[in-house]
Each structure stands twice: as C-alpha cells, then as structure tokens.
C-alpha cells in the first residue's frame, strides 16, 4: 500500500505502549538531506495519511495521543509531545522538553526544556489556550487561540477584539484581567529566557 510519494507501509503493525495500533513505514525514494535511502525502514505511524510537509520526529522523541506536528517543525532528542498539543511552522522541540495538553508551539519557537514554554487554559471569551514559547536568543512568541504575537502586542489585540465579545461588562472585565495575568506571568517567565547579547 503506497502512502504519499516517499513512503509506503511495510505491512508490519503493532500495538504501541499507549494501546494504539501503529504501522511501520519504508522509504520509496531517497531523501538525501536527511540521509534516507530508498528502502530504508522508518518509524511507526498511527495514520496512513501523510502530508507533503517536512515535519520530522527523530532520535528518541515521542509524539503521542492526539498530538500533531506540522510544516517544518522538528521534535528530537528525548522530547515528548502529547495530549492534544500541536507543533507548527519552524518550531523545534528538543532535549528533554515535554509539551502537552492543548499547547500550541509555533513559529520559530525553540523549546529545549520544560520551562521554555507555558500554557494556560481556558481563558478569554472563547475559552482558548494561551501558549508562550521561547524563541531564538531568549525572545518569545505568544499564541492565544488562532492569534499569534508578543506579550507587548497582547493587550492591543484584546482591546481590538473586545468589541465583538458577547456577555456583559462583568464578563468582559474578567477576560481582560485573565489576559493581564497572562502578560504578567509571561513577563516573569521571559525574563528567565533572555540571553545577553
């Protein structure tokens, strides 16, 4: 059975440690930049639907549960991505980091340790997850639902969106206070990430 253009199922299946049936893949074409030769056995997939993205899980890294890795994202070393967590874009999760729950690691995030990201939920009018991740040189990216920005641009976005919120003024004030708390927690967290230039 062929899956995509570069992999096929080997016909070998097993039940993994969390009770999910997974299927081993084999390369049908050389992928020189990753050192893969045609016929090389690969890892195990829970779904036969592969995309054209260049996402990669390598070394002793684990992606389990409903977690998903997209785009050019990389999960490597002894990192774990689990639950309903999502890793997007050019993000990197490596070393001993464990990203879980509803966290969304995106953009150019570089999560190498557990303290390189925080996720808080449910917050705001939509009850979404706010995820703050470390990026290169101690900078950061903040994702709140489908919005991404920085701690410095968060409150302007809250002000812009407040006009469309449902509910009464008391609910609005509660949600604004949640976002202010995220900003304060985020600033304290980011201070630990900053790298002197």
What does this entry look like structurally?
It is a single chain. The chain has 197 residues and is of the alpha/beta class. The chain is 19% helix and 33% strand. The chain contains two helices and 18 strands. It has helices spanning 151-162, 169-193; strands at residues 2-3, 7-15, 21-27, 41-45, 56-57, 62-63, 68-69, 74-75, 80-81, 86-87, 92-93, 98-99, 104-105, 110-111, 117-123, 128-134, 140-144, 147-149. A four-stranded antiparallel sheet has the order 1-2-3-4, with no helix packed on it. Strands 5-8-11-14 form a four-stranded parallel sheet, with no helix packed on it. α1 runs antiparallel to α2.
For the largest sheet, list the strands in their spatial order.
1-2-3-4
Proportion of strand residues: 25-35%
Average of the residue pLDDT scores = 84
SSE ordering? EEEEEEEEEEEEEEEEEEHH
Main sheet? 4 strands, antiparallel
Oligomer: single chain
Number of helices: 2
Shape: elongated
- The helicity comes to 10-25%
Distance between the termini: 52 Å
The tally of strands reads 18
Derived from helix and strand composition plus strand pairing, the structural class reads alpha/beta
In short:
The protein has 197 residues and is α/β, with parallel strands linked by helices. It has helices spanning 151-162, 169-193, and strands at residues 2-3, 7-15, 21-27, 41-45, 56-57, 62-63, 68-69, 74-75, 80-81, 86-87, 92-93, 98-99, 104-105, 110-111, 117-123, 128-134, 140-144, 147-149. Strands 1-2-3-4 form a 4-stranded antiparallel sheet, with no helix packed on it. It has a 4-stranded parallel sheet with strand order 5-8-11-14, with no helix packed on it.
């Amino acid at each position: 059975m062929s899956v995509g253009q570069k992999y096929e199922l080997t016909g070998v299946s097993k039940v993994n440690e969390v009770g999910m049936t997974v299927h081993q893949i084999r390369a049908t074409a050389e992928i020189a930049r990753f050192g893969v030769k045609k016929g090389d056995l690969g890892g195990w997939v829970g779904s036969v639907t592969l995309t054209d993205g260049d996402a990669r899980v390598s070394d002793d890294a684990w992606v389990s549960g409903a977690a998903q890795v997209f785009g050019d994202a990389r999960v490597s070393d002894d990192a774990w991505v689990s639950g309903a967590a999502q890793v997007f874009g050019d993000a990197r999760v490596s070393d001993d980091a464990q990203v879980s729950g509803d966290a969304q690691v995106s953009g150019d995030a570089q999560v190498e340790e557990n303290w390189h990201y925080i996720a808080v939920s449910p917050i705001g009018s939509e009850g979404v997850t706010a995820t703050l991740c470390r990026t290169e040189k101690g900078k950061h990216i903040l994702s709140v639902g489908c919005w991404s920005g920085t701690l410095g641009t968060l409150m302007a976005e809250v002000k812009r969106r407040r006009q469309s919120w449902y509910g009464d003024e008391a609910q609005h004030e509660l949600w604004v206070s949640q976002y202010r708390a995220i900003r304060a927690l985020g600033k304290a967290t980011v201070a630990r990430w900053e790298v002197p230039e």
